[in-house]
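User: Here's a protein and a ligand (2-deoxy-2-fluoro-alpha-D-galactopyranose). What would the complex look like?
Assistant: Let me lay out the input and then the predicted complex.
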Amino acid sequence: MRTEFVQRYGREPLLVSAPGRINFIGEHTDYNKGFVLPGAVDKRIYAAIAENGTQTVNVFARQFGESVSFDVSETAPREGWINYLLGVTYYVQQIGVKIKGVDVLIDGDIPVGAGMSSSAALCSAYGFALNELFQLDYSRMELAVIGQKTENNFVGLQCGIMDQFASLHGKTGFAMKLDCRSLEYEYVPFNFPEYKIVLVNTMVSHELSGTEYNVRRQQCEEGVALLQKYYPEIVSLRDVNYEQLTRHWQEFNAIVYDRCTYIVNENQRLLAACDALRHGDLPGFGEMMYASHKGLSKRYEVSCKELDFLVERSKTIKGVAGARMMGGGFGGCTINIVQANGVDSFSKLIKDAYEKQFNITPEIYVMQLEDGAGVVGSQ
Ligand code: GAF
């Protein structure tokens, strides 16, 4: 990237990278102010960046072979991936600091649309790079919020903070339990050397923006509004317990009730799953992954037939501790915890079965938990 940057722009860049993420459990809980348990992984977005002495940001995305330019003072969204950079440029300056024009080269190996948050990694890498280059002094959490606001207001996805948080805070060998209300977090070791984290990509691309994702968020808010009439202290589904929910089930629209039930259960499950991890109880952890998938599929309805098939099939393969769909849903990957010496046979069995069923070859990735965004090389 350094060589290409120098050829393209004629000066030395700062090189940064930011990872994609997995999530062990706690799906769609972030925007309900609950808990999540993600980890950063060894697939990353790389950004090479240098000041160019103008007021223009010039971006070349190597994966897409596309160049786009915009003025640093632009405030309105456009079409396509450039919104991730436009939004971050806008929000880093929102508190009054000013940046100058930059040249940027972007590349990476996070599969796009696979539910591993390539977009959050892009915002994190670019935000991190601007922070370094202009010494803006934002904390990692502030950069995560900038990335989230970009998704919310420039891209139109009403996402929570999990993905941006994970990309910026990852730590090798650790998952992170994040409280999405207080933004307090703790590192939880995923310490099972005889197991691997294996993602199976359905190759069904999920396009979350402007779709069912935002509808789910509205349905959760509808549930909160109903319960607030009885329990004014409730601010989000995080505050709701199962008893409060079931007591008022007759007043709920059936779909909204299902959505809320899933979220209330998933928050509880996450807490229990963290306990299981701390006690080295992988079978217990795996059971909760399967229960999470069931809830996501049946009550939250963000799965799809390809994801359901992969999760069901995983149950029949020896050495799989747990599996579930991962991320926003409607496609993307399943996350599987697989015995290390069984990864090859798992991969073969699941690939053959999936090909036979859907005539699609899935991609399979064995993941490592890695550090969050950082400088790879200085100017
Ligand atoms: C997507 C969103 F971006 C996250 O904020 C989160 O809600 C996730 O879906 C589901 O847990 O990745």
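Summary: The pocket of 2-deoxy-2-fluoro-alpha-D-galactopyranose is lined by residues 27-28, 30-31, 117, 159-160, 162-163, 327-328 (CB under 6 Å).
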